[in-house]
Amino acid sequence: MAYNLLKGKKGIIFGALNDQSIAWKIAEKCYEEGAQLVLTNAPIALRMGEINKLAEACGNAPVIPADVTSNDELKNLLQKSLEHFGGPADFILHSVGMSMNMRKNNHYTSLNYDFTHKTLDISAISFHRILQLAYQMDAINDWGSVVALTYIAGQRVFPDYNEMADAKALLESITRSFGYQYAIKKKVRINTVSQSPTRTTAGSGVKGFDGFISFAERMSPLGNATAEDCANYCVTLFSDLTRMVTMQNLFHDGGFSFTGVTQQVMEQMEKQ
Question: Distance of CA 34 to CAs 11, 109, 143, 144, 172, Å?
Answer without folding.
Answer: 11, 47, 18, 16, 29
